[in-house]
Amino acid sequence: MTNKELGKDAKKTGVSRRNFLTGAAVAAAGAATLGFPSILKAQGPISMRWQSTWPTKDIFHEFALDFAKKINDMTGGDLRIEVLPAGSVVPAFGVLDAVSKGTLDGAHGVIVYHYGKQNALALWGSGPAYAMDGNMLLSWHKYGGGKELLAKLYASIGANVVSFPYGPMPTQPFGWFKKPITKEADLKGLKFRTVGLSVDVYTAMGCAVNALPGGEIVPALDRGLIDGAEFNNASSDRLLGFPDVSKVCMLQSYHQNAEQFEILFNKTKFDALPDKMKALIAGGVEAASADMSWKAVDRYSKDYLEMQTKDKVKFYKTPDSILAKQLVVYDEVVAKKSADNPLFKEIIASQIAYAKRTVAWDMDTYVGRRMAYNHYFGKKAAPAKAAPAKK
Predict the structure, then answer these.
(1) Residue 389 above 80 pLDDT?
(2) How do strand 248-251 and strand 314-317 relate by DSSP bridges?
(3) Residue-by-residue DSSP string for 153-218
(4) 213, 219, 217: which is closest to 196 by C-alpha?
(5) Going edge to edge, which strands form the sheet with 208-210?
(6) Domain residue spans in the chain?
(7) Hey, is 294 helix, strand or coil?
(8) Are 337 and 344 spatial neighbours (Cβ–Cβ below 8 Å)?
(9) Residue 192: phi, psi to the nearest 5?
(10) Neighbours of 173 (CB within 10 A)
(11) Looking at residue 352, what is its pLDDT?
């Protein structure tokens, strides 16, 4: 090859190399501009395997599925949460350990179910909550210091989890029984199912208490292993089959006046998520909380009516004497637990301070509903008969 030809070839090579380098630079700049999404798409969506603490037929498992769908949709499928029913991987009361260890990536349940690990965890749903309802208890959690105290509690037992309480529950029934409970003496020796601090309260009131998970309660009632039980609400109780084994339900109680659900993530898995996805999850939790409470109003009221009309269940208000006794016994239990557990004492003080201010505002502000309901839906008095016309 001549020198002239070599020169021409060198020019061609230089042009080719410049084109290559330019193309590579453009490609690199494009990748940098796309950033995380291009990497995520290349790796595929993040998958998580969860378990609820509820049987498939319970509306609570439906709430768990609702939450998962909301998050899956909000992240555009970049995060895919699959929720299995109770017992699929671990027993209902075993989800905290399973999530902490990474056996499960997350769970849907209630904080009270972890009572055996640290009794102060029951304060997110077990007891009168110092007259706060479920929504006010969530307000205390977010704005009154509860969030920081819960993180402190989980750290104290070495739980590798991130917790999101959500979904305020209405006051739970006193329970299902063979016959109405009319006085405190009726509870003496009664084999009863409940959970959390209510175990201590009802034990002090004379019951023989057994803390069973939701799916085991009705079979135990049916076989006579327990004489009475409480679970949660009209829809759950009906779906789990309570009306099939009992026709007496006592409404209103202070044993679980205010409670909420819990969304639980394995902390290692959660911390590894992109910040944008963490923000979507936090927002999704609050959106699911509102939607769940709205769905509950619709579904619980329908099942409450159908249990009366179709299932022939008789509902009774819990006597005031029993309600008053619950409060007295609860205070005794709290005093004992506070003396043994500094964190328990700290949480109680925080709840009392928040409740004293917020419940006073609430009671002074909201008008009572009973008068308006009776005005529109109460039995109307028969119109007075016209006096006979005088001749």
Answers:
(1) no
(2) parallel
(3) HHHHTT--EEEEEEEEEPPPPSEEESS---SGGGGTT-EEE--THHHHHHHHTT-EEE---HHHHH
(4) 213
(5) 208-210, 191-193, 228-229, 175-177, 248-251, 314-317
(6) 40-170+259-297
(7) helix
(8) yes
(9) -130, 145
(10) 24
(11) 98
Read off the tokens for 182: 């009319």
Alpha-carbon dihedral of residues 365, 174, 286, 49, nearest 10 degrees? 180
pLDDT above 80 (res 247): yes
Question: pLDDT > 70: what percent of the chain?
Answer: 86
Beta strand 191-193 pairing with 228-229: parallel
Provide the percentage of residues in the chain whose pLDDT is more than 90. Answer: 84
Q: Where are the beta strands (DSSP E) in the chain?
A: 46-52, 79-84, 106-109, 161-169, 175-177, 191-193, 208-210, 228-229, 248-251, 259-266, 314-317
According to the model, what pLDDT value does residue 241 have?
96
Under CATH, to which class is 40-170+259-297 assigned?
A: alpha beta
Q: Give the model confidence (pLDDT) of 157-210 as tens digits.
A: 999 999 999 999 999 999 999 999 999 999 999 999 998 899 999 999 999 999
**Per-residue pLDDT reduced to its tens digit, 208-228:** 999 888 889 999 999 999 999
Helix (H) / strand (E) element for 103: namely none
Q: Residue 99: which of 270, 259, 213, 285 has the closest Cα?
A: 270
User: CA-CA distances (angstroms) from residue 200 to 174, 225, 329, 338?
Assistant: 15, 20, 9, 14
The count of other CB atoms within 10 Å of the CB of residue 75 is 20
User: Environment class of residue 45 by beta-carbon count within 10 Å: exposed (0-12), middle (13-18) or buried (19+)?
Assistant: middle
Tokens of 124: 């997110």
So what's the pLDDT on residue 381?
Answer: 56
